[in-house]
Every structure is written in C-alpha cells, then in structure tokens.
Amino acid sequence: xxxxxxxxxxxxxxxxxxxxxxxxxxxxxxxxxxxxxxxxxxxxxxxxxxxxxxxxxxxxxxxxxxxxxxxxxxxxxxxxxxxxxxxxxxxxxxxxxxxxxxxxxxxxxxxxxxxxxxxxxxxxxxxxxxxxxxxxxxxxxxxxxxxxxxxxxxxxxxxxxxxxxxxxxxxxxxxxxxxxxxxxxxxxxxxxxxxxxxxxxxxxxxxxxxxxxxxxxxxxxxxxxxxxxxxxxxxxxxxxxxxxxxxxxxxxxxxxxxxxxxxxxxxxxxxxxxxxxxxxxxxxxxxxxxxxxxxxxxxxxxxxxxxxxxxxxxxxxxxxxxxxxxxxxxxxxxxxxxxxxxxxxxxxxxxxxxxxxxxxxxxxxxxxxxxxxxxxxxxxxxxxxxxxxxxxxxxxxxxxxxxxxxxxxxxxxxxxxxxxxxxxxxxxxxxxxxxxxxxxxxxxxxxxxxxxxxxxxxxxxxxxxxxxxxxxxxxxxxxxxxxxxxxxxxxxxxxxxxxxxxxxxxxxxxxxxxxxxxxxxxxxxxxxxxxxxxxxxxxxxxxxxxxx
Length: 548
Prior knowledge:
Layout: E1 8-11, H1 27-32, H2 34-39, E2 44-47, H3 75-86, E3 91-96, E4 100-102, H4 106-112, H5 116-119, E5 124-125, E6 146-148, E7 155-157, E8 164-166, H6 172-186, E9 192-195, H7 225-236, E10 245-249, H8 255-262, E11 271-273, H9 295-311, E12 317-318, H10 328-332, H11 335-351, E13 356-360, H12 381-392, H13 397-407, H14 443-449, H15 452-465, H16 467-470, E14 473-477, E15 484-491, E16 494-501, E17 507-510, E18 519-523, E19 533-536, E20 541-547
Parallel strand pairs: 1-2, 1-13, 2-3, 3-9, 9-10, 10-11, 12-13
Antiparallel strand pairs: 4-8, 5-7, 6-7, 14-15, 15-16, 16-20, 17-19, 18-20
C-alpha cells in the first residue's frame, strides 16, 4: 500500500461526535465511531488540530505542540485512538502547524520576557527609519502583518492572525524544534503528517517591502529555502519511516513549485494541496462575492495541475471540500434537485484523477451547506467580519448575508449528521454549531437505503483494485466541451475514459470508437449502452474501461 492507491478521510474533531454532552466533538467520540470510518475503506484519517490553543484561529494557533487540548480528551485517549485505527489498518495523519505559534506558546512568552534565544525564534524587527512598520506586507486575515512586540518598540511578523507569530526558519534551533515535534508524534505511532501553509517558511533573512503595485505574497511565498528546509525536516523526522505519508498545504503557489515539493527524487513531501480550482467562483479574485462558477476555468485549472504535476513527477492531493471551504455540492452543482447525482459526479471527478483523494467528513453522505437564515447563525469570526465589511460597502443586509451564506467556512463545520434527531446524533447537549437538514441527510438513512455512501465505498475500492486509477497517466479529453469535464487514464494496456456532466441538463459528447466496445467501470445512473455519441443525463458520471 502506497500513498498513490490510498484514500484519506478528513475529520474536523470539533464537529465529528461529542461523547460528553458539552456540544463539542472529542477524541472519545471519534473512537466510538471507528467502525464507520473503517467501513469506508480509507487508509488514513487526517485530523485537524486538537492541541492546546486559545482558538483564535480554530486550533491553528497552537500553544503546545505535544499535548492534547483538554476539551478534546487526553493523551491516553489519543493513544487508544491510534491503536484502534491501526487495528483496522488505518493510519493517523496529524496537522503540523509549523510556520507560526500561538503568542501564548512558551517560546513567544519567553521571548517577550526578554530571552534572546527565543526572540531569535521569531521575526522581530524595528520600525523603518521613518517610523513605519518593518515592511508593507498585509496579513492574510486583513490589516498589517506586523504587531507591536510588547513594550519594546519593535514589531513581530504575523502573516495570519496577530495571535499567530511567524517562526524564523533561518534559525537552526527552530528547524530542530520542528523536527522534534514531528518525532514526538512519530514515537506515538503517527506516520502521516499534513503541513499547514508550509511554503511560506522560506521567507528571506532580510525582509523587504513589496514594490508598489505588486502582490506582497510574492515576497514570502515559495522562497528558495523552502526546498532545503523540507529536505532537512524529511531527513530528521518522517523520512526515517518507509511508510510515512506527507502532504503540504501550499498557499498562493505554482505548479512548478509544487512539482518540486512532491517529486520523490527531491526527498521532501509525498503530495501537495493547492486551491486554485476553488477560486473559480470568485469575482475578480475576491472571495466575498456572489457569482456563478466558471466551468471553463475549473476545467482549465484541473487540467493544468494534472498535466503539470505529471510532467514534473509531482503528486496532487485531490479534494473538493475541507474545513475552510463551503460545501462543493452547493458551489458547483444543484443539490436541491439533483443531490445524489451531484454528490456522486463530484466524487467521480476527484477519485479517478491522478493523485490521492481526500474525503471531508459528511461529503460521503452528500451533506450540504446549512439552511441558515441570519448572520447570527454563524459562529466564525471571518463570516461576521465579512458581513460587516459588505454592509459598510453599501450592500443591503439581505445581499450581504447571501454572499456570506455562499462562502462561509462554517458551512463545512456543521456537525456530522449521524441521524435525523434534533441534534443530528452529534451530541446529547447543545451543539456548538447548529445543523439544519439532518432530517433528510444523515448516515443512518444512507446506510439503510442511500446511494451516495455506497458509491463512495465503491470508488475507494476501485482505486485499490485498478492500477490504471492509482498509477495511470492522465490525458485531457474534449477540453473545449461547454458542459462536460472529461479525461483519460492509461496504464499497462488499459485505458479509462471518465465523463462528468457539470450541468443540470443533458449533454452530448462524442467518444473514441474503441471505447464503444469497453465496459462501464462505474456510473451514477443505471446501466446504459455505449455509442459513439453519448447523451449524459444531468450531473451524470460515467467511466469506461478498455483493455488493449
């Protein structure tokens, strides 16, 4: 088993299952539902952070890398979780947030207390001679990327929230600490690691202003040192395990850079996340807008990454959904009229591509965005800030809410819907975030008579059974078709043609004559005959296999 024929399941622990009645998911709730996870056939579970944290950024502001947040459980719970998953042949993948620490972390607090050793762990700089901030960089969360370092008159860098101080990876002590964190969890049986925004660790030792009119992200993203730092981390930690599986989250990146990060000859990472395909419904590149997604752009991005990573011997982490994205089924399809077809079509696109598929919890039962009606239904501070900003620009309350409702991160964070009960079977108490549509979308109903969950299980099984899926080359097909995304996979004398209709109407497409003699590997509609021209139904997915 390698990462190429593996499938990884993502769990947002806060929303998976609450075992205590406090309304917050925890490790014990995950342990209790391992049989369900195992039934999917997945190989790893990626857990969002459950380390101690002030929760200024949903756990990505870590105050202790080597402990468990008491709200989530204990280290004994964690050890039991690892052993229980391992008994089903499932590995654990942990989130390593090593670009920055919480300002509550001991290192930062000791730096504030005046310890030079720990001040050198961070980017602490004086103001420029004119009194302005050290650079003109903008935080990804808005506002300047610098905050006052105590009462010293200096500033510290935070590319994200002010509570997340960037670590200076030029310092070999910082790099040694990062390896120490990874090795701590390796020694507890963890061999999967997802590295958060890892391509911004290569900032220059001398930090410079971005030239006026340019994108300041280019000043610190995909720097030349990232490759060296990843190779060093690989050699000092996870690279010592033959069966380790690693993925890097790459922010504002390029195909060329990501091929390098994941090329096996470079000894860095196994695969990478990129997000370009999830920005095709951004108007003029702006997230907080409301515009139909651009199918031509989506096809172009998916194809560029498939071809480019293949040519560079890199490997993609494939996904539609995660904890930071609204549900793809709402963004790209029609879950009101064609929820089953939409969910299974989107799954087909990802699971049959070249790369390793990630399934975000609830995706496998066709969960949709919640039916919220007011901004007060949302918890995430980003959603509330966006709503306020949209109102300030003159949008009506209704318009502002509609935009937030389409893009909010909380859309994916609603609790896992286990049954049709008042709290969706997630908790016996009051859930931290409310579910709205569990009466018609839940695990119990999918297990009993659903079509989406069995389809996911079949796709996952096919990746393990068919080398053409896990190892085959990717070839684009019919890229100019206005409704259909299609591609071909080739391996060992077999060819697989994948056809997916992204519209709520029929679409015709011509296929190569040799595929009319093939067999249907999987389809989300009833069996059909194969002709040189195929009429696809709304959101139909069809994969045809031929052997030479």
